[in-house]
Amino acid sequence: MPYIPHTPEQVRDMLEVIGVASMDDLFADIPAELRPASFDLEPGLSEMEVCRRLETMAAKNRTNLTSFLGAGFYDHHIPKAIDPLAGRGEFATAYTPYQPEASQGTLQAVFEYQTAICRLLDMDAANASVYDGGSAMFEAMMMAVRSTKRTKLVVSEGLSPIYRIMLGSYTSNLNLELVTVPHAQGTTDIAGLIKAVDSDCAGVVVQNPNFFGTVHDFSELFAHAKAQKALSLMSVYPVLQSVLKTPGQMGADIAVAEGQSLGLPLSFGGPYLGVMSCTKKLLRQMPGRIAGRAVDAEGRTGYVLTLQAREQHIRRAKATSNICSNQALCALRALIHICLLGPEGLTRTAELSMERARYAARRLTAIPGVELLNDAPFGNEFAVTLPKSGYQVIDRLIAHDVVPGFPLGRYYHGLENGLLLACTEKHSFEDIGILAERIQGACQ
Amino acid sequence: MKTIFETSIPGRPGVWPDEPHKRAQDMLPAELLRGKKPDLPELSELDVVRHFTALSRLNFGVDTHFYPLGSCTMKYNPKHLEHVAALPGFTDLHPLAAQLKGAGQYTQGALEVMYELERLLCEITGMAAYTLHPMAGAHGELTGAMIIAAYHKKQGNQKTKVICPDSAHGTNPSSAAIAGFDVVNIESRDGIIDPAALAEVLDDETAALMMTCPNTLGLFEDHLQEIVAMLREKDALLYYDGANMNAIMGKLKVGDAGFDVVHLNLHKTFGTPHGAGGPGSGPVGVCEKLTPFLPISRVVKLEDGRYFLDYNHPDSIGYMAPFYGNFGVALKAYAYILRLGREGLIRVSEHAVLAANYLRKKLEHVLEIPFNRVCMHEFVASAVQQAEKGVRAVDIAKALLDKGHHAPTIYFPLIVKECLMVEPTETESRETLDLFVDDLVDILERADNYPEAVTGAPITMPVGRLDETKAARDMAVTWDLARELDEKQAQKPAPAADDA
What we know:
A: alpha/beta, Aspartate Aminotransferase, domain 1, Aspartate Aminotransferase, domain 2, 3 domains, B: alpha/beta, 7-stranded mixed sheet
C-alpha cells in the first residue's frame, strides 16, 4: 500500500507487542452494528494514473483566454522563485509553530511578514493571516464591536458585494446592525457615509479602490468617525498600496486586504490570504496568531507566538475568534513576493497595471455608446456602461477567447449594462487593442 | 539570524518588471498617493533565495523529522499532490469565470473535481451532501454551527445552547459562541462522555452536542448510540469534529452512526500539507434534512453530464467563503483519495491505529497512561510521576527536540495533567517508532538521574527556551516595534549599583 512502510512481518510483530491477534481487534471498541454496510470507493490508482486523470480534468478548464476579470482578484505575474522557496518541505510540511525552538524559520518569516504588511499599509501591527479578505473584514468588524461595545456598523456599497454577502451571512446569528450606504454612480458616497456614522456606530467599512475601481481619500470620513468614537475599517488592494495613500495616512484603525495579488495564483478561489493589520492600541483585540520577538536565557533573539491568551485554545468560548489554522504558507508566499520585487518592483507593477487600464479606458470610450460609469480617478480597474447588457457582450466575446470583464449586473441592480475591467502588467497593449475591437464588434 | 529588513541594500535591483511609461503621479492626483515608496527590503533574487532557504533550515517538518503531534495528523504528504495542484489548468482559473452567464462550460474540470470530491466524502462518512467552502477545521465548525442554528430557526425551535465535553478542542466552544450559542461544558468520565452528565444539562433548549470521535484522548466514545438516542429525544443535533477521522475510515461511517453534521480536516486525514499553520480545508457534510442550509454555491451535475453552480437555495446560510473554499487544497485531497482508493484508506486507519497502540505499549512502562486501553490513532500519556521530580511534560518535549523528534502535543487535552498526546500516523516506519521510543526512554532515565539535563533542553536548537511572558509584555510584533523598544531601553539609565 502506498505510503505505509510496514512489511507484513513487522505488522505481525507489532500486533504481538500490542497483545492482539489481528488488526481487527484494534477496532473492537466500535460496535458491530455501527460498522459500515458499504464503503463503496474505487480501487486505488497508480501515481501515473492519478496525474493523468487530473491533467485531463485540468485540460477541461479554458485558461487560454485573454481575460480582463478582476473584481478583487488579480492575475499578476508570480516570480518563479516563490514556488521552490515556499514549497520547501521545511515550510510546507511543518505545523503551526507551537514548539518555537523547532520552528524559528516559520516564526521569523511570520514576524517579517507582519513587518512588511505594516510598512506597506502604514499600520502598527499585523497578524499571521486569516482565511481571506472577506473573513478578515468580518474579524475587523468584530474587533470594532468588542472595543467600542457598540453594535451598529456602517458599510459602504463600494465594499465588494462578495464580502458584503459574507458579512451578512457571518453576522446572521449575532445581534449586529449593518447599515449599507449606497454607491453614487460607482463612487463611494463619502458624504453619505459621514451622515450615517453617529455615536452609536462601532465602525465604518470602506474599500479602496472600491469595487468599481474608484480611488478615494477617506481621511475626512475617518476623522469624523474618530470624533464619534467609531473605528475606521478599510479594505485595500496590496499591489496598488505601493502607490496609493495608505490606510495609516488616512487614519484607519484596522486595515484588511485580500493578499492574493501578492504572489498567489487565482486557483479558482483559493487558497488566498486574509491580511489583517491594526493600530497598536487595538493589538490585543486582533484575532489569530501573532509572532513576537523574544529572547532566550543566553540572550539570543528568537520569535514566539505571542498574546496567545486571546486565542481559542486558551479562552475557548470567550476567545477573540475561533480561528486556528490560517493561511500561513500563503503569507510566506506574499512575504517572498514582496521581498523579490521590493519597493521599486511593486511600484512598477502598480503603475504598469494602471497605465494599461488608462489605455483600455481610452480605447473603449472611443467606441460609440461605451462610456465610463463615472469620471472619478481609478487605479487598474474601471467600470463602463455598454449599449447592451454586460452579460450579452461577455457571451459574444468569450466565443472569441476574450473575457472582457465582470458584469456589474450580477450584483448591482440598474447596472445591467455595466462592465468592470481590470488590467495588470500581464496585459499587452495588443491584448487591449483586440479587446476594444471585439467590444466594438459586439456592441454594433 | 538577521531579519530581511536588516539585509536590505538601498537601490539594489530586485525582480523588477519593465519600467512603466507613466509614473503614479502622472496618473493620479497627489492627495490620493502615498508620496513615499514603502520601506520594503531591496534585495537581489539570490539574496532572497539564501534568506528563505536559511530560514527553512531552522524548521522541523514532516519531510525532515518525526512529528508525532497529537490531534494534528502529521502524516507524509505525497509529492505528486503538489504537481496536481500546480497544473496551470487549475492555478490560472479565475473564480469568477464560473459565474459568467454561459461560462460554467469554461470551468468544467474544476467543477467536476469539486463534485467528485464531495461525492467521495459523502461515501467515506455516510453523509448526504458536502460543502467544500470552509477554509479550515474551525471554519467548518462555524459553518456547521450556523447550519444547526438555521435548521432550528426554520423548525421554529427555541434553541440557545450547545454542549461540549471537556475533552473538546478549544475551537468547538469558540465556534459555537460565534454562531450565537451559549456553550455548556460537561465533564468526562473514564476519558469519555458520561451519559449521566449529559442528561443533567440536556434539555429542550439544547441545539447540539459537539463530539470528537475518537476523542482527543484517542478513545472511542463507547456511549455513542445511547447519546444519539438521548439527543434525538430533544431534537438536538449531533456534531462530528473530524479532527480524528484518520482513525476510522472504513470502520465507522459517522452519518450512519447518527451524526447530523460533520467537518473534516483535509489537511489532516487526506494528505495535504499543513503549510506551517495553513492553508487547510474544512469541508462540512450534513444529513439529508440539513442540506437546504448548506452554504451557496453548490455544485450540481446535470443530466447531460455537465456541471454548474447553483445559487438558488433560499434557506442557505449564505456565503462562508468568497468562492468555493480552498480549492487548491481540495484538489490535493481529491488526488490523495483517488490514489489510495478503498483498500488504501482502510489501511491508512488500520496502520494509524496500529502505530499508536504499538507506541502506547512500548511506553506504558516508562510513562503513566491514564486511560490505558486499546486506543485509536493517538493516545495520551502523562508525566505526573516525572513532574514530582521536577521534570514536566514541557521539559520532555524540549528534550525530544534535541533528539531530532518533534514533540507530541503537550498540555492538551486539558483533562490530563502533564499530558503528552502522541499521534504517530500510518506513514512512519517501525524503525522510526523504535528510535522515538529509545530516545524517549533515554530522556526519562535522565529525568530520574539528572533532571537538570532535561529541564535545560533544548541545547541543540537555534535558540533555547524563549521568554514568552516578556514577549507578551514587550509586544514587539514587528521589526519597527522591536527597534522602538530597543531604543527606549537604550535610553534608560543603567540601574545604580545599590538598586541591584
